[in-house]
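To the wet lab folks,

You asked to see what we're planning to order before we commit. Fair enough. Below is the target structure as tokens, and below that is the sequence we designed to fit it. If anything looks off to you, flag it before the synthesis order goes out.
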């Protein structure tokens, strides 16, 4: 489990370098991916569902990204995009395409649906966390006035 989280950390660092994000934020973006993957593993251990696990992982990535954006005064996208890289269902997308090529259409259908569901869960997790964070921040600012 620690090995997987370390690899998720590294898997989030390399997109930062690729997208030429400020070098001072490399470590923080790595933590984003590690936190998202740790949340994924924790939920997957109990549910065995890649869709719900990806949703929770993406939700944690979104919350962490919004927090770090406020702390480091930078756009949250600089953390959320590298942070979701470990969650992206690459092997299921590959299996889908490979099954189509090999004319195994029932396997391609099931793997394709899982790929789409995980992708949607990631998008929904990021969207929900960002919306919730901004809503709570707005309420807190109104309460201070």
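Sequence we intend to order:
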């Amino acid at each position: 489990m620690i090995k997987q989280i370390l690899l998720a950390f590294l898997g989030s660092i390399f997109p930062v370098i690729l997208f030429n994000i400020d070098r001072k934020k490399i470590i923080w973006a790595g933590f984003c991916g590690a936190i998202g993957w740790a949340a994924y593993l924790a939920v997957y251990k109990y549910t065995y569902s890649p869709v719900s696990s990806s949703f929770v992982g993406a939700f944690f990535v979104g919350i962490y990204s919004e927090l770090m954006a406020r702390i480091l005064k930078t756009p949250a996208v600089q953390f959320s995009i590298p942070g979701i890289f470990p969650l992206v269902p690459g092997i299921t997308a590959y299996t889908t395409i490979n099954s189509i090529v090999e004319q195994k259409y029932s396997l391609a259908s099931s793997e394709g649906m899982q790929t789409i569901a995980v992708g949607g869960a990631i998008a929904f997790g990021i969207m929900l966390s960002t919306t919730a964070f901004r809503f709570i921040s707005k309420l807190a600012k109104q309460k201070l006035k």
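Structural context that might help your review: Residues 62 and 126 are 5 Å apart (CA to CA). Residues 105-144 form the longest helix (40 residues).

Thanks,
Computational group
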